[in-house]
Amino acid sequence: MFVLTIDQRGSRRADDRVPELLAGLAAAPDVRAVLAAERTVGDEVQLVVDDAASVVAAVEICWRLGDWTLGVGVGAMDEPVATSTRAARGSAFLAAREAVERAKRTPARLSIVQSSIDGGGDPYAADRAEAALWLLVAIESRRTRRGWQVVDAVRAGGSQRVAAAELGVSEQAVSQVLQAAGFAQTERGRALAAWLLEQL
Fold first, then answer.
1. pLDDT tens digits for 116-140?
2. Looking at the 3D structure of the chain, how many domains does it have?
3. Domain containing 171: what range?
4. With contact defined as beta carbons under 8 Å apart, do 71 and 4 qualify?
């Protein structure tokens, strides 16, 4: 199980952005929640998912919105499964708390911690998954608003041709924007990060 603990940066000096984050996570088709994202305390949000692709998608949403620190905990959830994120407990939640605190001291504001209680195999597996996500968000952080618009259209439509028709531009224009946006690299990066998370 993956628990994401997401903390707003500089919240004492800024508006409350939790509603914006909750709406973004709820609307994302690639984030398949086991327990929906909820405000847990203050400016903090928690989300529970059980697949690696959902983790990658949620990380991407947090980075697009900006000003979030994200900890991913990998471990078990206590049975019986709670009906809400706030009511749930387990080693994955403890790992997520450790991860978000550690994330505050990292350049990427992102950390992954695998629960030692559940006896994970490779002690470096979480570090490798974390490194892949750091590289992914480093590339995506340079993407312009137009770049994201085109990337979103291609992902939704399944092809550059469909995206071009939807956006009312040529396929060549779409291709040029995707190249500038590092689309090919980030799509491979998303797949790599998900695969590494699946090894945890």
1. 876 666 778 999 999 999 999 999 9
2. 2
3. 145-181
4. yes
